[in-house]
Write a structure and sequence with these properties.
By secondary structure, the chain is an alpha/beta fold. The protein is 70% helix and 8% strand. The protein has a six-stranded mixed β-sheet with strand order 1-2-3-4-6-5, with helices on both faces.
Length: 394
């Protein structure tokens, strides 16, 4: 468009020049020359114009291409701007989240450090409490040991001094004059020319069982290394705390010809009573014929009574089983109700104190039997007792 305007201006200028020149030129040749030059000039201008138009067209095409390219660039730029804005938002959000995570991490690190310090403090406290507890347990074991030893010695002395037993005894500070000082048992009981060792034992460690296993070996070594070995009875008793006795898996030991038994102090009197019977049997040769006959008759009577009582118990048990089998005649529903009710019933246990009282004192048994047949509202009818007596006598 610029080239067209330029060409028009040139034409106008040329026309003006030509018009003015024409009026002044008188010579035709000059005019012709001027026209030739004008045409030549116009030709050049046309060529230039065409060249300019070609360049214009070329520039127009490039301009369109550039416009398309520019439009594409603008679209890409807009897309990039949008992505940039989105990226900026994401970056802002990420930075915000990262800052929050950093703060949270810092808080967690702080909390973890506080927790670690609290854990260390707790460990220190627990270790301190464990040490204190172990010290308390050690002191408690020492106290229990001392009390156990003193209680055992006191109880054994009391039992030995009972008139019906009357055993000679010795403590670790009052041993027989001929006794080896290297062997100092807690308690000795004289028995048929020998001495039975009773040692109070309680582990200061966690396992009483392991402690007793070790004590068996050490005690045998001491006995065999003593000059009084021949005077020591081949059965040794360890008196252990009653509360720990039930936890022992093994209470009998055997080592190099010696038997060892662990038992609670409550069994001491029963042991001495058994040894007393052995002593009485051993002294039976000194009885006169009448005394021997009385003993034989008494033992025979006991034996007969026990056998008869066993037979009665057996027969009554059989009769009881027969009675129980009679429920088989009942319907399944009733038998089911019976079994259900029986499972709910509490099994009555014999009271140890009553059992001990009746065993040790036959008069209590007689009193109890009288109480069954003579009270105003007897629990057992007299006729039932008569029937039982009759059946037993038949």
């Amino acid at each position: 468009m610029e080239y067209v305007t330029l060409l028009a201006l040139l034409g106008l200028i040329g026309f003006i020049v030509w018009d003015k020149t024409k009026a002044k030129i008188e010579d035709v040749n000059l005019k012709q020359e001027f026209e030739d030059k004008y045409r030549e000039k116009m030709t050049d201008l046309e060529v230039s114009l065409k060249k300019a138009e070609s360049e214009r067209d070329e520039l127009s095409g490039k301009g369109k291409e550039m416009f398309v390219h520019l439009t594409s660039l603008k679209e890409k730029s807009q897309t990039l701007d949008e992505k940039l804005q989105e990226t900026a938002k994401k970056l802002t959000r990420f930075e915000s989240e990262e800052e929050a995570r950093t703060k949270e991490f810092s808080k967690k690190v702080t909390d973890l450090e506080e927790a670690r310090k609290a854990l260390e403090d707790e460990k220190v406290r627990i270790r301190r409490e464990d040490i204190e507890r172990m010290e308390d347990e050690e002191r408690e074991r020492d106290r229990i040991w001392n009390e156990h030893e003193n209680a055992c010695l006191s109880a054994m002395k009391e039992v030995c001094q009972k008139p019906e037993l009357g055993f000679a005894f010795y403590g670790n500070t009052t041993l027989p004059d001929s006794f080896d000082g290297g062997l100092k048992p807690d308690f000795l009981v004289e028995f048929l020319g020998q001495y039975i060792i009773f040692d109070a034992k309680m582990s200061r460690s966690a396992s009483l069982q392991n402690y007793l296993n070790d004590q068996v070996k050490k005690t045998v070594k001491k006995i065999k290394g003593s000059k009084n070995e021949e005077e020591i009875y081949n059965t040794v008793f360890f008196i252990v705390p009653t509360i720990e006795f039930d936890n022992l898996k093994k209470t009998h030991f055997y080592e190099e010809g010696y038997s060892f038994f662990a038992l609670p102090i409550e069994a001491f009197e029963a042991i001495l009573s058994s040894f007393k019977r052995v002593m009485n049997y051993d002294l039976a040769e000194s009885f006169d014929p009448k005394e021997r006959e009385n003993i034989v008759n008494l033992i025979a009577t006991y034996d007969q009574h026990i056998s008869r009582q066993n037979a009665i118990n057996l027969l009554t048990t059989v009769e009881g089983l027969k009675v129980m089998h009679q429920k088989g005649t009942l319907s399944n529903d009733i038998r089911g109700d019976i079994e259900t009710t029986k499972k709910k019933m509490r099994v009555e246990n014999l009271k140890p104190n009553d059992l001990k009282r009746f065993i040790q004192n036959p008069e209590e048994q007689i009193k109890q039997i009288k109480g069954l047949v003579e009270p105003k509202e007897p629990e057992v009818a007299t006729e039932d007792l008569v029937n039982v007596q009759s059946s037993l006598l038949d």
